[in-house]
């Protein structure tokens, strides 16, 4: 089982050409690492690298016309390269319910919830006058969750699912925001 981060970054750069998907992947990695630490004892590297690679197939498959393809191609690539393990593969599949893989454990739930919150926080950041993540407050995240017209495509059900891990949404929002703030330079926020 190879889960080396440098190799993971190389894979991301090889397979993902869409820049905002790359930055999204780094954001999900940061959130997953924070969740692994909070939900200890978890494998921080495994969780982080899974977050980093969860959208590896974004530019490879026409998943917009067949959503069930998204995740499956990533798993196929990783298996062929003997990179990762079954827990990683299952989490990647479970982050997209259209694959048919249901969320069955804390790791899978973390990725399922951690994926959409990064885009949601990004959208909130961009409506701030300075467009800086440092200005975003948790109360804004909680408030915007109730505004269904704001970032209407954000999977709120998935974000709320974090509570299945024993973490309240407000704590999750803070943890995710803090994780993203730590890499604001990478995110361009």
Automatic annotation (TrEMBL):
Gene3D superfamilies (UniProt xref): Hypothetical protein af1432
Domain of life, per lineage: Bacteria
Residue span, HD domain: 23-98
InterPro entries: HD/PDEase_dom (IPR003607), HD_domain (IPR006674)
Signal peptide: none
PANTHER family assigned: METAL DEPENDENT PHOSPHOHYDROLASE (PTHR38659:SF1), METAL-DEPENDENT PHOSPHOHYDROLASE (PTHR38659)
Protein name stated in the entry: HD domain-containing protein
Native species: Johnsonella ignava ATCC 51276
Lineage, broadest ranks: Bacteria, Bacillati, Bacillota, Clostridia, Lachnospirales
